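Action item from last week, closing it out:
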Amino acid sequence: MEARDAAVSGQGRKPRPARCVARQGAPTRAAVGALAALMLVLADCGSSSHGGPSAATATVTATRDTAFCGAVTTFTTSIVSPTNAHSSLSSSVVPAIERTQRALATMRADAPGAIRSDVDRVATVWSPVFSALLAGARQPGSTPPASFPAQAQKATSVLFGPAGEAIGAWARAHCPGYPSRTASANGRAMSSPTASAPSASPTSSGPPSGRPSSWPAVVAEVMVDVAPRTSVPLEAPRVLPAAGGLPNSALVRAASPTDYGVSLHDCPAPLPLNDPGIGAGSCGSMAALYGDFAGHAYSSATAALSALSQRLTGELHPPAGCTSISHVQLAPGLEATLYSGPAPRGNCLVVWQEGEWTFTLAGDLNGGLGGDASEPWTAVAHDIVSYLDRHLLAETHGSFSCEMGGDGLHSGLAWVRGDDVYMASAYHGAIPALALAIAMARYPG
């Protein structure tokens, strides 16, 4: 399934990440642990080595910048993500939490104008998290507020997303002694706190991620061909998630000032870029198609959102005869709408919403694709929900659609990034498509 071409786009709701809004009542170990237990290490991170402005920071001439540099160093070097639970907090970390709260308050008060909105966004979502953590540390074993899982997921996504990237980039450029890499679970600066994720949530509004030579070879090769021919800010998969095989050949489907599109293939033997044999002969079967990624530039953010809205309109329209509506719980606090028709039509469309992302399943919802033989779409939906409990999608408006067929789960995603819309798809599975989208990041150049 191609990445739905260029006519994609969205609605004017306030942006919010799909999995940065945890379902109330969902298990807190995955959703909360990466934040709750990080306070267990703040005592060490906030010691003399990271406890405020160093001698190097004294060279920053502006008093406000000096204060900000010391505070942001304390804050960002304290944010790590060991996995644990809220119940692991103890009174011994109260001083560390309070110290980090003070650093965040100083950051907000003295933020440079260029990143003031980013700092304000981080402070807004982290303040209630620290308050909840402080309460938990003062009363060990207490139950966190019902709102805490959602606050924790939101705070994590914002810090490791574009806002956090912008703050880190400013600090690296203006704060002597600021670490080139801040602490994280997988050792990468400003990365996703979920070590098993193939990448952070897409962060194309942040700085370029890595050098071209550090990207997958097949991606680097195709982007060299695409870059001179388009004005769209480039995004590409930073890693290639394994999906039955890895691509070894690439085809540029489109490259113009306003769009680009790439198909990745797993051919029996590697073929040169844009070789006529890609998509033909021994590499011509759909089984060889690994996936697609693409980008399209619009005249404005409003136009980009409108394009996503048009895409959603098509995806959310039930087929003729599917007039019966019911509701199915996919997880605690997460409900899907099921459209169905009389026999033999049966179930024909499933829709649910998480944050600003809309998810749809269509096609052969009644076939024997796995799970419950009578309603196999439930297995697919639960796999998606479970995967997104551990991996974050972009913090923006987006859509996921899956056409269930006898030859696979043809899945595609589209999301808005400013004036642009990006897409990723996989022909054979929903999870490979999600993983490819999550791996998308700003390509340097």
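Closing note: The chain has a mean pLDDT of 73.
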